[in-house]
Amino acid sequence: MIKSLCVYCGSARGQSPRYTAVAKELGKALAERGIRLIYGGARIGMMGELADATMRHGGEVIGIIPGHLQSSEVGHSGITELKVVDNMHTRKKLMFDLSDAFAVLPGGFGTLDELFEIITWRMLSLHDKPIVVVNVDGYWDPFDRLIDHLIEHGFARESARQHFSVVNSIGRMFDLVEEPADVTVVQHPERI
Q1: Which tens digits make up the pLDDT trace of 110-144?
Q2: Interval 72-121: pLDDT, tens
Q3: End-to-end distance of the chain based on CA atoms, in angstroms?
Q4: What sign does the CA torsion over 53, 74, 98, 127 have?
Q5: pTM for the full model?
Q6: Contact between 114 and 8 (Cβ < 8 Å)
Q7: Phi and psi angles of residue 35, each rounded to the nearest 5 degrees, phi first
Q8: Mean pLDDT across the chain
Q9: How many domains does the chain have?
Q10: Which CATH number belongs to the domain containing residue 177 in this structure?
Q11: 189 falls within a domain
Q12: pLDDT mean over 148-157
């Protein structure tokens, strides 16, 4: 059983109300399961919705935010603990260190950066923590096609898919992150 889940998601809400609904669903589920949320520390967008839902249901939330974003007043002061760090690199490393597994909800460039980096670290055998992409209403379908494209053009091996999973529900995400790392199986979303 994991104790802490790092969630990467947008500092915007996105166009679909389903994105924030899933963030709230995940926050509630984390609190109910007694799993600590580790996230980017913002009070805005999906990040804020996720943190607020976790706190509202009695969960524990640790946010990690670089000082330049904290000074822009986007840091969340209503969570269990907000750690202010020097830069983005320190933020990502600390989020990694505090987490047992990773979930990825819809987001923008920052979310993509975090997703690719955490997959790359796993491919380089720097960790064996589960990574699960939650494909809300097909949001991550282009990502899945991009991975196929990389494989088809010889810039990645088919085995790259063994380092992450793409699922369509929060329930299935919990199934995978709570499995021991050595039995996490990666499949296309339509097979899960």
Answers
A1: 999 999 999 999 999 999 999 999 999 999 999 99
A2: 768 999 999 999 999 999 999 999 999 999 999 999 999 999 999 999 99
A3: 21
A4: positive
A5: 0.92
A6: yes
A7: -100, 125
A8: 92
A9: 1
A10: 3.40.50.450
A11: no
A12: 96
Whether 64 is in a domain gets the answer: yes
What is the DSSP secondary-structure string of 113-129?
HHHHHHHHHHHTTS---
- Contact in structure between 39 and 9 (CB atoms under 8 Å): yes
List beta partners, residue 65: 84
Q: How far apart are CA 163 and CA 183, in angstroms?
A: 11
Q: What is the rounded CA–CA span in Å between residue 104 and residue 7?
A: 6
Alpha helices by DSSP H, the chain: 17-33, 45-56, 67-70, 88-97, 109-123, 141-152, 170-177
Range of the domain at 49: 4-184
Token readout for 175 is: 């199934």
Within 10 angstroms of residue 117's Cβ, the number of other Cβ atoms is: 14
Q: Return phi, psi of residue 8, to 5°.
A: -100, 130
How many Å separate Cα 145 from the centre of its chain?
19
Judge whether 42 lies within some domain.
Answer: yes
Examine residue 190 and state whether it is found in any structural domain, yes or no: no
How many Å apart are CA 105 and CA 16, to the nearest integer? 13
CB-side exposure of 142: number of CA atoms within 13 Å? 5
- Phi, psi at 101, each rounded to 5°: -160, 170
What's the CA angle centered on 80, arms 79 and 84, to 5 degrees? Answer: 75
Tokens of 16: 């679909």
Residues 6+ apart with CB under 8 A from 56: 27, 28, 31
